[in-house]
Amino acid sequence: MKRAVVLLSGGLDSATVLAWMRREGFACHALSFSYGQRHAVELARAAEIATALGAVSHSVTQIDLRAFGGSALTADIAVPKDRDDASLSHGVPITYVPARNTIFLSFALAYAETLGSSDIAIGVNAIDYSGYPDCRPEFIASFERLANLATKAGAEDGTKFRVHTPLQRLSKAEIVRLAVELRVPVGRTVSCYDPTPDAQPCGRCDACILRRRGFAEAGVADQ
Q1: What percent of the chain has pLDDT over 70?
Q2: pTM score, whole prediction
Q3: Distance between alpha carbon 215 and the CA centroid of its chain, in Å?
């Protein structure tokens, strides 16, 4: 089986990507990050999901992005709540973590190179998302080019790295339906940016709003 590094946050999208890569025949090495995020409950869920979906391994890497702040997820900044559709679809929100996907993909690239793998997977989406620039197809294409230029495997060994983004063009409802088809334990995934102390979703942040809408439009119970 070909090896792949799958970025796994513990959320619905990344869990669905892991299940999709497994269906495609990859031996998946899941990679999560403890980066100072306020919703760190996702890491426990990621471990559960990695086991449930048959990942070969699951690693958690420590990076403290609180050192830079600049985001409601890593600094003492309030997470926006109850935003309407116009607000959700306009501009880059304060929950954007500066360069997060660039950082995560760089770690995944290093991990893949040590594994002798040319495949990385990430759950970015360009349709039902909160306006993050590092979820766009142009970014992923650019990172692929960088991967093939910046590594020994690419420069000397002729490896062609590929970043798999199976959810890139799907709506949230389509992602939900795919997750159910792939038998993802959707009820164990966590999307909320600002969960309660007992790990319950707030129900009001952008991630909760988009998740609720996706399940409703898919006609699927979130459990």
Answers
A1: 98
A2: 0.92
A3: 18
